[in-house]
Amino acid sequence: MNKEKTLRLVIILLSLSHVAILSAQAPGRCIIEAKEYPGKDPLMWDALYAAKNGIVYSGLCTEGGSAHLYAYDPSTAKNTLLYDIAEFLGETGKGIRTSGKIHNKPVEDNDGNIYFVPINNGAGPQTIDYTSWRGGNWMKYIPSTGKLENLGTVDDGLYPLTIDKKRNFLFGINFSGYFYRFDLSNNIIKNFGRVSNWDICRNIFCDDAGNVYGSFPTGRIWKYDAALEKVVDLSVTIPYDPTIYPVELKKPMIDRTYEWRSILWDSSENAAYGITTGSGSILFKFDPSEGKEGKITKLAKMCDSRFLNDDRKDIPFSTLAFTADNKNKIIYFVPSAREFDIENPDETYGSENTSHLIVYDRALAVRKDLGALQTKDGLRVFGCEGASVGPDGTLYICGQVEVDNPQKATSYVGNIPVSLQLIIYKPEIK
Question: What is residue 33's three-state secondary structure?
């Protein structure tokens, strides 16, 4: 065999080897279960929480209609409607703006009670006067009795919500950017002023000392100091790439790209893990106790795998389908798979690209794409905007699942009928 043929054969073998390696690394399918909700809600934003008793609570929304609170019981494998929120608050049938959305992840106190705050944020027909909105309400669900209680109004409702279990405080930010504390023991609300000018970060967290942290542009962090009972701005910043296109390319000054999207506290490490809204969905660790104002450590890009190793600047910003299994040191994230569209800056829903489950092993410092989310029957999963881990390590996600019967659809992704469903993934914990 002459040198030319030998060289050609080597090139072919190297090419085939490269293809084999890529094929081995390419993510396949991530098999999940999907449980339908009894209602027809088409959307949800972050309002998914797996409680310590194993029950999974979902706050789904119809935007202009009513939010609905559901409970999934793993022992019966059924989703049950607990409450129609607008109906419970006496808003339906009056031609007024209603509680059409729950945009915060419910929180749980030491007694197992569940709290959330509904919002309207302008949703509904434009012919209905926005000033007819009565405002948001602190809501308390008591699992032991099945009763829902209205604890009183809080301005125009809240986006993020967190709890200080030790001191029995709820904290949240309203639609206008004001930061509130609700003393549950004494039924006292305090307004600490405005912490955001335009778009409010969707997640805040409380550390074990009772301090609360939030994010604001550009990559900045504010802190509620529990000892001083005041809010201060920190100089530490979260990672971001200013060259990544804003989501609102036509209105870049009101874009939320430079905040964190989701963040979770881990008491065992005395640190928080969060994900940036833009810049490729960067996973980071925030240690508030290291140094004078804390330390930020960049860990990995968690965006859809097709955006990882190229120079594209049109990376979709993060979803709210972010959670952690702190016991097993695993981060879960379902990134947006949408294509970039200047005219229609969709966040997640509506993308015809299937959603993948991305994990980050904190102990090994390894990112892995587990593949496209699909049921055993091959039904695909599209936009996802909520995630939580149960006490047994089961991962729950809320997202759009393909349905084989169009009558069950709550919306369409292109020509594909889908419905919002509870997605269940049981990892193999070693």
Answer: strand
